[in-house]
Design a protein that fits this description.
Chain lengths: 348, 290
């Protein structure tokens, strides 16, 4: 899981996000949905972005495609795709980059297919937008069949309408469209949110298989820890528009460094031990009126004076492990939750 | 394809779950009206539609099936002659109205902004003014009214409702996931509009077209009944105008005014049924699931 393979290690970043900021204009001021997020991915790497609703995950996914709509606005930062800044591209260049270099597997396959078009035509539309020269019909049909096969669908699906397919088949068809031009980066925004767990796993395995075949980097956005654990190499934890912790998935799950990550993991039911489930007390802050200092400080059991005044920066505590918390570098691991906090009933 | 094949195809279509009863009934009625208007003139002696062709005010008899009017015209002959121009006016008005409405509705709904605001204000203002008042003024100032011209006059006010309904649909369509996906896949805005949005509108366009045709016919009949219709060709509306002018209702000449009214009623009924049925036909989500 840890990107230990030296050849992968040395490969240049295919996607590099630097200080990305996306704000929503509201009547109460700017809602800082994504506020200075940076990460980078090498070919073949899988990054999972996790966080609760409103933490900015989907906003990042849309900004990476430059599909942010008003009232949302990309305020700053760079999204470097093979060294070229997607956010600075001209419209024409951007259109060419979409699907061919960076492709979106959208949230909710149910609405992502045009209900009145056959699957084959929907795949061909994407291809034709990039290769407008005339293709013989036969060649296109063979290509569609190959793409469908790659995602585990029969080629007869090509002639069907979306309503004739099951949820899992639809999601596979969406995958076939997204991977039709062998993109270098795949952005998957909760691709399996509407599917049951069995189909979810199958679809994720398919996504993984196709991605490995292409050597593409994947950014998987979601809130399902289990899914992340199975799929991702690296996990980034989002809180209130910022990345608070990034690390290899196993290390992050077994030995979380950020208090929020720790509480998030504690709130999950475990199969092998029986214990009381704990929620995280309090609510995420409203994005227009953020607490001073660390955004998590009002809910944090480790909170001390500095947290209320100074915003912690994301920095590397160990190789591959980045955390934004004032506990480091003072501590080498996350200390036990102070008893006082639990006794005082901060946890309802 | 052999005749057998054609019959099998017709039977297949007729038994498809998308062929609903309203659609079949509407099509059959419309077919009858079309046959009457297109084949009828070849079967009926058209000379009988001229003034003074027969003795005036004759009740129906074996010689004159539908009797004659006060001007000595055979009612059968002028009803048969007048049906097609009436339909033609409706088709022109409906076609032009839908054409303008589609263009304005698509662009206004998809691109929004100043253009949308302008179109909306214009359409809304025109909708509040009684249409017949505007049409009367325009029609009264036309020197030589022809079928095509009357169709165009009616079309002047036939685009607002299609514009508003299509715009409303586009507003909802443009937010659908697949529209965003098409953008994410690098399709141009104009491609997205015509490849992704437009095909989803076909049921609404079909239903709106039928609606606009019937609104056009109704408006034209209104003008004709007021005497602002065609001087050159007979229509169903002009038939009502003459019947009213010669007090046919008070005079008890029911054979004069009943046939045009029945034909008009059948036209409206069939258009209504078609509009209801087309919505299902053009929608692949319905059907095949049965």
């Amino acid at each position: 899981m840890i990107p230990a393979n030296p050849t992968v290690e040395r490969a240049p970043d295919v996607l590099r996000v630097e200080d990305l900021k996306v704000y929503y204009e509201t009547s109460k001021g700017h809602a800082k949905a994504v506020d200075g997020v940076s990460f980078s991915l090498r070919p073949g790497e899988r990054l999972g972005l996790i966080g609760e609703s409103g933490s900015g995950k989907t906003t990042i996914a849309m900004a990476l495609m430059r599909l942010t709509h008003p009232p949302g606005r990309i305020v700053g930062g760079r999204v470097l795709l093979d060294g070229r800044d997607l956010l600075a591209m001209r419209e024409r260049e951007l259109r060419r980059a979409r699907l061919k270099e960076i492709a979106l597997v959208p949230q909710g396959a149910m609405n992502s297919l045009n209900p009145v078009m056959r699957i084959s035509d929907q795949i061909i539309d994407g291809v034709m937008a990039h290769e407008p020269d005339r293709h013989p019909r036969m060649e296109l049909e063979r290509r569609v069949a190959r793409l469908l096969e790659r995602v585990g669908l029969e080629s007869s699906v090509a002639g069907r309408y979306p309503h004739e397919l099951s949820g899992g088949m639809k999601q596979r068809a969406v995958l076939a469209i997204a991977t039709s031009l062998d993109p270098k980066v795949i952005i998957a925004d909760e691709p399996t949110s509407a599917l049951d767990v069995v189909v979810q796993r199958q679809v994720m395995l398919t996504l993984g298989r196709v991605q490995e075949g292409l050597g593409a980097a994947v950014v998987l956005v979601g809130h399902d820890m289990g899914l992340m654990a199975q799929f991702a190499d690296l996990v980034g934890v989002m809180y209130a528009g910022k990345l608070v912790e990034v690390g290899p998935v196993e290390q992050l799950l077994t030995e979380p460094r950020h208090p929020y990550t720790r509480l998030l993991i504690d709130s999950l039911p475990a199969l092998d031990e029986k214990r009381e489930l704990r929620g995280i007390p309090g609510l995420p802050p409203t994005l227009v009126d953020m607490p001073a200092g660390c955004a998590f400080n009002p809910r944090c059991p480790y909170q001390h004076l500095r947290c209320r005044t100074e915003t912690p920066e994301l920095w590397e505590v160990d190789p591959h492990r980045q955390v934004a918390c004032h506990l480091y570098p003072e501590h080498s691991a996350l200390p036990a939750i102070p008893d006082k906090q639990i006794r005082e009933g901060a946890i309802p | 394809m052999s005749i057998h094949g054609v019959l099998r195809e017709i039977s297949r279509v007729a038994h498809s779950p998308r062929m609903t009863r309203p659609l079949i009934a509407g099509s059959v009625l419309m077919l009858c009206v079309l046959m009457l208007s297109l084949i009828g003139p070849h079967l009926v002696n058209q000379q009988l539609a001229l003034v003074g062709a027969r003795a005036p005010d004759l009740a129906p008899s074996s010689a004159n099936w539908f009797g004659t009017d006060s001007l000595g015209r055979s009612v059968l002959a002028f009803v048969v002659d007048g049906t097609w121009p009436t339909l033609q006016i409706g088709l022109i008005a409906g076609g032009v109205g839908i054409g303008i409405g589609l263009l304005l509705g698509l662009l206004a709904g998809y691109f929004r902004g100043v253009f949308d605001a302008t179109v909306r204000v214009l359409a809304d203002s025109l909708l509040t003014i009684p249409q017949i008042a505007i049409l009367v003024i325009i029609a009264a100032n036309v020197q030589q009214m022809t079928v095509n011209l009357l169709g165009l006059v009616v079309a002047i006010l036939a685009w607002m409702v299609p514009t508003r309904t299509i715009r409303a649909q586009v507003l909802s369509m443009r937010e659908r996931g697949y529209v965003e996906v098409a953008r994410a896949n690098g399709q141009r805005e104009i491609e997205v509009l015509f490849r992704e949005v437009l095909p989803n509108l076909i049921p609404y366009i079909a239903a709106s077209f039928v609606g606009a045709v019937s609104a056009g016919i109704l408006a034209a009949i209104g003008l004709e009944a007021l005497g602002l219709g065609l001087s050159s060709a007979p229509t169903l509306g002009t038939a009502i105008y003459w019947a009213e002018k010669y007090s046919a209702v008070l005079g008890g000449e029911w054979w004069w005014w009943t046939p045009p009214i029945v034909i008009i009623a059948v036209i409206f009924l069939s258009l209504f049924l078609l509009s209801a049925g087309l919505d299902r036909l053009a929608n692949p989500r319905i059907g095949s699931r049965a």
